[in-house]
């Protein structure tokens, strides 16, 4: 609608609520009342935590009809299939959002996801979709996969804790091989395994050179899965910039694969291996690969079960590195010997800007 006023929006919304016999949402009234400028897109429509049944969703159309937003936040709004379908259809039709948060909605069901997929496919303005903790199960995944294949304007996709392991991940990974727009993919907390799931992701990395951030924290990738990922990583000439493997039970065996792969990766700038039982042997396996690598600028080794011996290997890499900017070594058992080695390496190194160590040095009997 053209040239609307705040008063018109409020009265239309209130009338709709009356007609539909549903409660007005005070949080919505307050946000609309406070609007000054109704020009192109308003920063945010925040519905987080409101209980939206089907009627409440229908009433919101009076707002979407008249104004557009950058962010529409539907986190934890208890959406059911009917409400979700109605809302996503509106957001698609009126191009209501560039950022949409539908996380923590356990019951949007197949029809909800179907409408979400339709919205992803049809709107040209939706760049960011956050669906954390909103299960994407076997029967819904094909719709989303189809949308991502030809998709869409999406640049950032959050699917943490959405029960992806197995067929849903296979469908998504296969579809994303064709996708040229997505830049950031967050798949934490999905119980992804070291076999089929990792094979699918490795395969995705072979064919997709547009995704820049892949976040796989808190999964079960294991050394077997890292071997698959490394197959894909070798192919990344331009593309993947950040890889997060935090807490995936990776050991020295996996570090050997990664050590052989690192000299081949050309775009990888941030590698986070924190909270894996990598150990000193793992760092030794990684060291030559890191020295032979020409791209890594930030390396995360927090809580990797390193002692002084591991710190010495890290120090040898620091001394050789002309480009490392940041290194995280917190929560390791690094004592005086390791700190001395790091200190010597820092005298030689010209690039490192930030080194994270524990505030309190580890206790030792001297």
Automatic annotation (TrEMBL):
Protein name per its UniProtKB record: Protein phosphatase 1 regulatory subunit 37
Domain of life (superkingdom): Eukaryota
Similarity comment: Belongs to the PPP1R37 family.
InterPro entries, alphabetized: Leu-rich_rpt (IPR001611), LRR_dom_sf (IPR032675), PP1-Reg/Actin-Interact_Protein (IPR051279)
Keywords per UniProt: Leucine-rich repeat, Repeat
Organism per entry: Urocolius indicus
Name of the gene this protein is made from: Ppp1r37
Xref: PANTHER family: LEUCINE-RICH REPEAT, ISOFORM F-RELATED (PTHR24112), PROTEIN PHOSPHATASE 1 REGULATORY SUBUNIT 37 (PTHR24112:SF9)
């Amino acid at each position: 609608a053209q040239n609307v006023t705040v008063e018109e929006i409020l009265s239309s919304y209130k009338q709709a609520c009356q007609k539909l016999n549903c409660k007005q949402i005070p949080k919505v009234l307050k946000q609309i009342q406070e609007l000054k400028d109704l020009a192109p897109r308003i920063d945010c429509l925040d519905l987080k935590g409101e209980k939206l049944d089907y009627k409440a969703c229908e009433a919101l159309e009076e707002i979407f009809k008249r104004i557009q937003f950058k962010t529409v936040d539907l986190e934890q709004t208890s959406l059911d299939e009917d409400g979700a379908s109605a809302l996503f259809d509106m957001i698609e039709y009126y191009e209501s959002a560039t950022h949409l948060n539908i996380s923590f909605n356990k019951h949007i069901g197949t029809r909800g996801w179907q409408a979400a997929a339709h919205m992803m496919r049809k709107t040209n303005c939706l760049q960011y979709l956050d669906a954390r903790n909103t299960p994407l199960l076997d029967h819904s995944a094909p719709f989303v996969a189809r949308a991502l294949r030809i998709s869409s304007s999406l640049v950032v996709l959050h699917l943490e804790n959405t029960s992806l392991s197995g067929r849903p991940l296979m469908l998504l990974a296969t579809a994303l091989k064709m996708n040229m727009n997505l830049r950031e993919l967050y798949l934490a907390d999905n119980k992804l395994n070291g076999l089929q799931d990792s094979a699918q992701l490795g395969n995705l990395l072979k064919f997709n050179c547009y995704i820049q951030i892949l976040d796989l924290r808190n999964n079960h990738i294991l050394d077997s899965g890292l071997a698959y990922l490394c197959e894909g990583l070798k192919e990344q000439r331009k593309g993947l910039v950040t890889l997060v493997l935090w807490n995936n039970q990776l050991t020295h065996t996996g570090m050997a694969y990664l050590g052989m792969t690192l000299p081949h990766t050309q775009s990888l700038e941030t590698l986070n291996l924190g909270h894996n039982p990598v150990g000193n042997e793992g760092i030794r396996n990684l060291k030559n690969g890191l020295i032979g690598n020409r791209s890594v600028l930030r390396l995360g080794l927090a809580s990797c079960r390193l002692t002084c011996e591991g710190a010495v290997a890290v120090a040898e890499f620091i001394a050789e590195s002309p480009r490392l900017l940041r290194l995280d070594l917190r929560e390791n058992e690094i004592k005086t010997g390791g700190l001395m080695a790091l200190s010597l390496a820092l005298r030689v190194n010209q690039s490192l800007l930030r080194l994270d160590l524990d505030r309190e040095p580890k206790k030792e009997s001297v």
